[in-house]
Amino acid sequence: MFSVHKAFEIFDQSIADYHIKNDVDTSIQNPHKAGSLEALLYHKNWIDTVQWHLEDIIRDPKIDPVGALAIKRRIDSSNQERTDMVEQIDDFFLADFKRITPKADARLNTESLAWAIDRLSILALKIYHMREEAERKDASAEHQNKCAFKLNILLEQKQDMLTSIAQLIEDIEAGNRVMKVYRQMKMYNDPSLNPVLYAQKK
User: Of 100, 102, 172, 189, whose CA is between 20 and 30 Å from 56?
Assistant: First the structure.
């Protein structure tokens, strides 16, 4: 059975593994069984972690414009891969909850289960990096205190999200909420939907 607490542990593991080398070009070494939900969660967070650092790099005011464009395109590609990965995670849940018949008065949710877990993955990154800032030895006490205050808020948000996602799963299991997925249908990477791209074919 899926455990949202286990998912967060996997995210923490992925983040820690990335920071062994702390290099956006480090190849992923997924410790989980290929094709498993755990492997998908690990891979998904790895994508988020690499993209987090690409977003830092591209904000360097001295960055070479050509290099910045290459990173921007890499981020675009990463966003598409991230979306595809979330939809694969949703496919796992759709298959699992296919056995559940929602009640007639079952409610909808504003986002799919996998997109809620996506937000949890990003939150794990926020917590990791805010903790880094709160403990920075070369930062002022004021900076450390501000970041410690923010870290406490993020930790509270973590507990709330773990609880709310667990409750969502319970509601789906009980037939009180509908497990429904709408695909993101991103358009900018699709040469048949992005007008700048398909205009070049004319």
Answer: 189
pLDDT at residue 185 is higher than 70: no
Contact 184, 87 (CB under 8 A): yes
Give the rounded percent of residues in the chain with a pLDDT score beyond 90.
Answer: 87
Asked if residue 23 has pLDDT above 90, the reply is: yes
Residue pair 47/125 in contact by the 8 Å Cβ criterion: no
Question: At 138, is the secondary structure helix, strand, or coil?
Answer: coil
- Where are the extended beta strands (E) located within the chain? none
Burial class (CB in 10 A: 0-12, 13-18, 19+), 30: middle
113, 169 contact by CB (below 8 A)? yes
Do residues 182 and 112 touch, judged by C-beta distance below 8 A? yes
Q: Residue 150 in contact with residue 126, Cβ under 8 Å?
A: no
Show Cβ contacts of residue 12 under 8 Å, excluding neighbours closer than 6 positions. Answer: 124, 128
Domain borders along the chain are 4-191
Mean pLDDT of 97-115: 95
